[in-house]
Amino acid sequence: MYDSRMSDAWTHETERYRYANREDIPAFAELLSDPEVDRWLWFTPMSLDAVREYFGPLLDRQAKERAAGETPRTAVFTVEALNGEFLGHGAVVGVEASPNGYEIGFQLMRKAWGRGVGTRLGQFLCAYAIELCDAYRIEGGCLEGNTGSATLLQKLGLQLEGTRPGYRLKAGIRHTELCFGSEVHRLDTAALRRVADATGLSSQ
């Protein structure tokens, strides 16, 4: 029987999502160095060395967990067009203080904006959290003013649950963080199951 937990990659319409590895780090660094991407991320800018220092251990642990037949606690994905063109990355991260709670995150190259890539990625990340991680709750956040990410999170069914005024510090300026989330049973689980079936996340 097909076991989606052992898969390396999944396809959703026009994109492919695969577990990231260290070879993806230069592409991650290029993405995070784009000023239009950087302006909405509290943890950037990051040099190539800084990106390698941050992502390297995560990717090594992910590879180790997968080699042991486990679903990674923090899953980092590379997003590609079907021709292999790099489009961005996404992640599903376990929330330590929330049993079966998972946070989704994503950054995309500018060339991927406005094409539905983010929506499809968000659907995949939610479906992954539900199908492979048994998520009870899904959350995500962005800086106030980042209407693109806020709209996407709401499109996924996550509700604005609160704000954290001055929570993030970037270039000496305090920014408000918007916090979105939902219990899984309040999401459009039928639509997410269709995504899981289409991508092969659900066991066939």
Report on the structure:
- With 204 residues, this protein is an alpha+beta fold.
- It has one domain (4-196): 3-Layer(aba) Sandwich (Aminopeptidase), CATH 3.40.630.
- It is built from six helices and eight strands.
- It has helices at 25-32, 35-38, 48-67, 117-133, 147-155, 189-199, and strands spanning 9-12, 15-19, 74-81, 86-94, 101-108, 137-143, 159-170, 173-183.
- An eight-stranded mixed beta sheet has the order 1-2-3-4-5-6-8-7, with helices on both faces.
- It is globular, with a radius of gyration of 16 Å.
- It starts with 8 loop residues before the first strand and ends in a 5-residue tail after the last helix.
Describe the secondary-structure layout.
Elements: E1 9-12, E2 15-19, H1 25-32, H2 35-38, H3 48-67, E3 74-81, E4 86-94, E5 101-108, H4 117-133, E6 137-143, H5 147-155, E7 159-170, E8 173-183, H6 189-199
Helix pairs in contact: 1-3, 4-6
CATH architecture tag: 3-Layer(aba) Sandwich
* Total number of domains: 1
What is the tally of beta strands? 8
Write down the overall mean pLDDT: 94
CATH top level assignment: Alpha Beta
- Give the biggest beta sheet: 8 strands, mixed
Uncertain spans, ≥5 residues at pLDDT below 50?
none
How much helical structure, as a percent, in the residues?
25-40%
